[in-house]
Design goal:
Blueprint lengths: L6 E4 L5 H12 L3 E4 L4 H13 L4 E3 L7 H12 L6 E4 L14 H29 L2 E6 L12 H20 L5 E7 L11 H8 L7 H13 L4 E3 L2 H12 L1 H18 L11
Parallel strand pairs: 1-2, 1-4, 2-3, 4-5, 5-6, 6-7
Helix pairs in contact: 1-7, 3-4, 4-5, 8-9
The structure holds NADP nicotinamide-adenine-dinucleotide phosphate (NAP).
The site of NADP nicotinamide-adenine-dinucleotide phosphate has 29 residues, from α1.
Length: 272
Amino acid sequence: MKLQSSTVLLTGASGGIGNALAREFAARGARLLISGRDTAKLATLSAELRSRGAEVSVLPADLSTAEGAERLAHAALSGGVPDLVVHCAGGMSFGRLDAVPAEAITRLWQTNVIAPSLLTRALLPALRKQARGRLVFVGSIFGSLAFPMYASYSATKFALRGFAEALRRELDGSGIGVTYVAPRYTRTALNDGAPARIAQALAMHQDEPAAVAARIADAIERDRREVYFGFAERIFVKLNAWFPWLVDRGLRAQTQRMRELEPAAAGLPRQA
Ligand SMILES: NC(=O)c1ccc[n+]([C@@H]2O[C@H](COP(=O)([O-])OP(=O)(O)OC[C@H]3O[C@@H](n4cnc5c(N)ncnc54)[C@H](OP(=O)(O)O)[C@@H]3O)[C@@H](O)[C@H]2O)c1
């Protein structure tokens, strides 16, 4: 689909990747409905985009509750049916599972999995009626390659990938496409704290949000089913599917290093 003159509903627009996506979509001529919780950040972003001639509406929403997702769908549909829905909002939890508060795990599932499911469900009848459009789900490389210290986060992204795959098959022939996106480590506030320190110490490759956004926008314009970032990461994903025991062994040294670097390994840098 062409982004020029299309209407895009974007969640997580106040975050690092979402901000970059909003700029990229606006630069390609899209009309934007931007969502997030931080109304000050959304106002700054919308002012910037409008000053460049973009048409932008702000729809604040807290996606950690079922009502938040339903209300956002309602607000989005009140101005017409979006052509493109990009589910970018997401939280993260890092640390040994037994050190993560139970309530944080529940909130993470709500924001990363249940909210995109409910939002999609609420928008689908209208999308089906217009028989065109695209749904984009921002997952993670951890949605195919589960990582120690990220058990809950990895599990939510595995679930989101399964949801996107099933939906793509369910919507086959409806005119509505589905794209699943799996970024690797990207320099945003999501990784503030221990994950950023570990990435630095392990010399992990770090993508810039603007580059990630440009690649996602290209994938949308080419109607791609999925986008995986990083050649080595893609190889690891394949290896993990066929020989998980090899990846278990391969990650052992890295896990040990993470324990040494972050003995507490229980920080919760960014919550949903
Ligand atoms: N950064 C990475 O290394 C990386 C790698 C792979 C995948 N991803 C995925 O990329 C997406 C964007 O992450 P990011 O790196 O841009 O993180 P970020 O800068 O922390 O932004 C997260 C965004 O999600 C929104 N959000 C979080 N909880 C929410 C809630 N309960 N209700 C509504 N909105 C909520 C935030 O809104 P407010 O700020 O307004 O609260 C913010 O807009 C996430 O799905 C993440 O899992 C990131």
